Sequence to fold (128 residues):
Amino acid sequence: MKYAVLAFLFLSISCKPDKNDGSGKGGSTTLQIFPQHHQVAKNIINGKIFIRYNTLDAPTSGVYDDSTSCSNHDSLLSGTLSNLKNGNYYLFATGYDTSVNQGVKGGTPYTITAQSTTLSVTIPVSEN
Fold:
């Protein structure tokens, strides 16, 4: 019994939670995100943007914290994520490029350092 208690204490002390950089909802920054295939934000339909908080890496589980559908503005596809705090994020975009008749996807790390503003972000995407 004594060893079980010691093992439990050792495991409790050695397990560290992920270090949170403060990213997530609750801030005043808006990201306007443009997926671009071959450096063009046109021709992409059915776009969706995913975001993972507190990291600059794609999640190995494929699970994201939030998402938004893209819409077409002046023939450019974009998605908007609002109320974000300063911190690290990983952004991922999917869609379908009608100019090549293929699905596209891609991701990029992004760090927010300024509040009360709208920031424009480009995500390069390529064929699936």
